[in-house]
Amino acid sequence: MDRITICRPDDWHLHLRDGAMLEAVAPESARHFGRAIIMPNLVPPVVTGMQAVAYRDRILAALPDGSRFEPLMTLYLTEDTDPADVTRAHADGSIAAVKLYPAGATTNSASGVRDFDRVRPVLEAMAEAGVPLCVHGEVVDADIDIFDREAVFIDRVLDPLRRATPGLRVVMEHITTRQGVDYARDGGPDLGATITTHHLVINRNAILAGGIKPHYYCLPVAKREEHRLALRAAATSGAASFFLGTDSAPHTDPLKEQACGCAGCFTATNTLSILAEVFEQEAALDRLEAFASRNGPAFYRLPVNDDTVTLEKGAPVAYPAKIETGEGPVTVFDPMMPLHWRVG
Ligand code: NCD
Ligand code: ZN
């Protein structure tokens, strides 16, 4: 097979930032994707329905003329979030989901949740109204090893939270472990999980072996090879629980390449070519459409995109090593392998 046509994919976890960075990165995602769930971790975060609508307008203004890319907005859950604002914004189409960051877990998460009892009324209102909760699933306890934070989160936080809030629809964002795969697979129709492009490609050696490689550092951090293999098996299985969320998260090179470098891999530019390569390696090109284009809309109860993209196999695809932005250069994720699938 050297040519496949699939329904246009969506990205169910994307960081577009704001200002000059937004202007540079929005076209990279809009080129291939139909829609994306837009993360709200701006500084300050997007916490109200009105702020989400204003941010959506800034994103739409940053798109190339004629683009049909649709940003699906999220609210950043804080201990002060008003349940009525969430359900109103969801009912009128201003938001598609709410994002839960444990305070301190990742980039710009200081306003996140410390005391889960304080968000109980919001979660109950969301369960009632069917508003999905996108969860950054890592505990932040200093005594839990960073490579164990996802597995511990599932046991200590996610499972109790789901049991305490029947009917709450949850997306485990950017799962990185076998434990995440197992929990999502057994969770029934109200539980989904996004998987990034880069976690299908790298394990922790990419960051640490042969010199420290800041452009492979993201959160949740890439784990051992056994976990990468579990993620590849899940993504290429076609199972409805698993769908693409690139977590493309641009930071400028100076912010990545410093003594305390920012977390995030920027994959918007070459994601589809990488995914086609991965799915071909797993002899699963026929399931790429389920993962990238069908399972996500099914979970979010949205129609599949009405147009298609075609991928063609040929000589290695050229893509820029960096993109220029008004804030400085952003390095494009290097999958350390030639990519043969060009998006037509
Ligand atoms: C994200 C960012 O930079 O906003 N970074 C990352 O490593 N993925 C935050 C996040 O999704 O955790
Ligand atoms: Zn993210």
Structural features, described:
By secondary structure, the protein is of the alpha/beta class. 34% of the residues lie in helices and 16% in strands. It contains 12 helices and 13 strands. Helix 5 (149-164) links the parallel strand 6 (133-135) and strand 7. Helix 3 (83-91) runs parallel beside helix 4 (120-129) and helix 6 (178-185) packs parallel to helix 9. The mean pLDDT is 97. The protein binds N-carbamoyl-L-aspartate and zinc ion. N-carbamoyl-L-aspartate is lined by residues 15, 41, 106-107, 136, 218-219, 247, 249, 263-264. Zinc ion binds at residues 13, 15, 39, 247, 249.
Give the secondary structure arrangement, pairings included.
Elements lengths: L2 E5 L3 E4 L4 H12 L4 E4 L10 H14 L7 E7 L6 H9 L5 E4 L19 H10 L3 E3 L13 H16 L5 E3 L5 H8 L5 E5 L2 H4 L3 H4 L16 H11 L6 E3 L8 H4 L14 H11 L6 H13 L7 E6 L8 E4 L2 E4 L9 E3 L1
Parallel strand pairs: 2-3, 3-4, 4-5, 5-6, 6-7, 7-8, 8-9
Antiparallel strand pairs: 1-10, 10-13, 11-12
What ligands can be seen in this structure? N-carbamoyl-L-aspartate, zinc ion
The SS-based structural class is alpha/beta
Number of strands: 13
Low-confidence stretches: none
Task: Let me know the average pLDDT.
Answer: 97
Number of helices: 12
The gist of it:
This protein has 344 residues and is of the alpha/beta class. The chain is built from 12 helices and 13 strands. The protein has helices at residues 19-30, 49-62, 83-91, 120-129, 149-164, 178-185, 198-201, 205-208, 225-235, 253-256, 271-281, 288-300, and strands at residues 3-7, 11-14, 35-38, 70-76, 97-100, 133-135, 170-172, 191-195, 242-244, 308-313, 322-325, 328-331, 341-343.
